[in-house]
């Protein structure tokens, strides 16, 4: 029985790649230095999987930014603004596409399906001249082979690549991206031919879009693409990998009918219904790569249950045709539990990070081959039993309170228009009020203070004094810039979810449980293992301290329940909505304490609400109902004069705009600039929005500083579709990843643009 891993985390167990990337971007190290760190990480990953007994080890899943951008580079699909003149794409062009540069903005970034990972969206049109411009896939295969490891090169499949793309600026929105298939297939043929010549015997095409709701035209594109590739693929074993959801019957039929394909990979963790399709109609003589080990969560696999599932499948496909696999790339989980020295032993026994999942995959394969490791299976069963019976998991009072929530929809008593009038009387804000999203740059000194306090190297008094000084600096800067509604900059927080999770019951935390979000950006998701409650106020002290430093409104800054849920590793022993309701009650307590402390503007970020939307349309309504309800629970008890803000970022919001309206926030700030103002199209199409709204006026994920004129132009585009009295002016997102040298001039230009437009609006009356 063979074993397979779809993909593996790239950052390294101690975020080695993150630091190497940032050093290179800051011009503190060379391209050769970066390449050396990357090569060492790849070598370590391949060796680890080989030593664990994995037969089908992936290559070309390593990336300096993301795998879709790698494919854009492979195809030479560089937008003209980056002035690429052909040849092999180097770091300058690659990172300009990802991050922008001094003269041009970055490409759009959006979420990878329903994960917290991001990818750079390809910009395509009929005039793109595709060419083989990055040999990374072949180079990495050869690199592994030179180390004695025969790998399975992984490519984003041609159809998924096009379906994840968008029409470039100036191209009709109705342009059929799939019409480009005949233009990109020749490049894929070149890559495949080089891989064959280099000695590859297997190749993996990731086609995750097959799990989406696809019409017959899109499904036929898969059939056409692989029929065109069939002769080139001859002599290779070909795996088409899908993940993140069930396949529909039509998609399963399309997958199994692809020409030249030897094997099919399916996610049996999030796609349990696919088993029925396999049992009823799996093609004879083909391989099934069965994804039974969860690549998106950190809980130990139920090995006994997985063996039962695999045995059922073995009876259908045959012993020699079944391969045990991860459900998706392990990119979405933490790297290695060995690095966790502070988790207590009981909770640690319940977990499996990427390195442990590799071992689980191989243990299952060996068990099916009659070489079951009895001690390993016994320890796994004991850990599962411990988790099920542990008293720390259950809090009956919390469960009772959450269950009672279903009897009300928790709406504020007054409509948003009346509330905005009451708030304006209290806040007295100008037209086009300016604000920021929450965080300010996290300097090395600030990070050192937090780190030393956590390590108990400095006293609480020293820590509080340092944080107060940082808040004062941020408040003074905002007043100097003449921003209307201030933030305290969140200097006490390393991460917007981790900070709250550390103060809520039912959460556990790792030391090195980092997961890549995009580029060098890593997050350390908390682990929700039990029922959630708030023992004490979490932000009231810092928000009150900040408000005491200014006469201007100071936002209280909270993370919403849906985002805390979607950006955590969530317990899998109860429905997600039940955990979300518990978090909502905890945040509700905090909101009401902030209001009592005199905070009149409270922002409850729901950056990840859209991210959690299920991939199947049939499941949207149920998710949105409980997600939106959870948000309303948090603020249903405040007075009309308390202004509730929320923030969302980096997703396609147009298809859920009515649910966003139903959240009933007083003001929503939302990502807009990096996606070519895609958000504004929904208002051009006639959707009426009566609450305050701040579509972002500049992209904070790029070091580029926008001019006053550029920002004013963006605001004018917004004024063409939104009422003047509801429009706010703000960046796309928080500023923690930027430097003050970038933030100060950008915010100065933002405020200047708002004032310019105010003057123009006043003179036009």
TrEMBL record:
Residues annotated as the enzyme's active site: 701 (proton donor)
Amino acids binding 5-methyltetrahydropteroyltri-L-glutamate: 18, 116, 521-522, 567
Alphabetized InterPro entries for the sequence: Cbl-indep_Met_Synth_N, Cobalamin-indep_Met_synthase, Met_Synth_C/arc, UROD/MetE-like_sf
Catalytic activity as recorded in UniProt: 5-methyltetrahydropteroyltri-L-glutamate + L-homocysteine = tetrahydropteroyltri-L-glutamate + L-methionine
Pfam families listed in its UniProt record: Meth_synt_1, Meth_synt_2
EC number: 2.1.1.14
Any GO CC annotation of this UniProt entry: cytosol
Statement: the UniProt record of this protein carries the keyword Protein transport: no
Residues in Cobalamin-independent methionine synthase MetE C-terminal/archaeal domain copies: 432-755
UniProt keywords, alphabetically: Amino-acid biosynthesis, Metal-binding, Methionine biosynthesis, Methyltransferase, Transferase, Zinc
Annotated transmembrane regions: none
CDD domains cross-referenced by the UniProt entry: CIMS_C_terminal_like, CIMS_N_terminal_like
Binding locations of Zn(2+) 2: 658, 662
GO molecular function: 5-methyltetrahydropteroyltriglutamate-homocysteine S-methyltransferase activity; methionine synthase activity; zinc ion binding
Note accompanying the cofactor annotation: Binds 2 Zn(2+) ions per subunit.
Cofactor: Zn(2+)
Protein name (record): 5-methyltetrahydropteroyltriglutamate--homocysteine S-methyltransferase
The species this protein was found in: Theobroma cacao
